[in-house]
Write a structure and sequence with these properties.
The protein is α/β, with parallel strands linked by helices. It is built from nine helices and seven strands; from the N terminus they run ααβββααβαβααβαβα. Helix 4 (about 90-100) crosses helix 5.
Amino acid sequence: MSKMQSVVLISEQNAAVPEEHGALAAVVRGILLCGICIVVSVVPATAQSRTLFRVFENLQFSGNPPDFRLFGIEHLPIVDPHILGLDVPNGDQVRQGLALVGSDRHLVVDIEQWPVEGSNADTQVSLAKYQQTLKAFRRADPSVKLGLYSVLPVRDYWRAIGWRGSEELDAWKARNTEVAAALVPNVDELFPSLYTFYGDKDAWIVFAKANIDEARRISQGKPVYCFLWPQFHKTMAFLPGDFWYAQLDTCRRLADGVVIWGTMTGAAGYSPKKWDENAEWWQATLRFLREEGKIP
């Protein structure tokens, strides 16, 4: 996500689902994907009634990447602990963060070291810190449209797709309800994280739908913009074009926009990938942008 990456909990994102659970996974995916076919056509009124699907970026490449604004892609500033520090930011740190804000006034706060799951004491401390941070930005500049990366809802893969049963799924939703009660009143937009841990496209769609549905449920009607990363979470390999297009298309059907984030080589210092205009993911993006009328 930000240069200060969260710990990778899944060791091989391009691996298949564990063999012993394969049959269950197939059943779960089949049932939920059938639901997607129905839900996409009738439920997401917010997405369907929108007049504009927003495409944002926070991309870094070596070489000569284009000006993404020429493709109808808006830059989205992200402020993280490199500026804010590891605790609630002080006034000077808040001002440095606000200096990143452009004319459209969006700002995503990316703080990943404050746990929102675990012991009740720890999570309450974290929620208080998030509240203090957001309120500090709001006081300093009420015009800024604030959001939190990957907190609303709490990103979850296995519970979200029903892998661990209905009880764990309900526990995840209950946690999201508690976090949302504390934080949604302090944000203007929600930014669920939908990065790619595995090479199973159908499972990713189930994962994405579950997280977007949760974001909608807790959003209080606020826009939902999904963070996508065109690389696998572990190997840093770029996604195949059809997989990447499926991610964009899924978000188009269910959300209000996407944020394309990246890139990383995996080397020390978080060095970016070299720009390649012929890369499959970029060609799939161009196709998507044409369909959205952002480029001819």
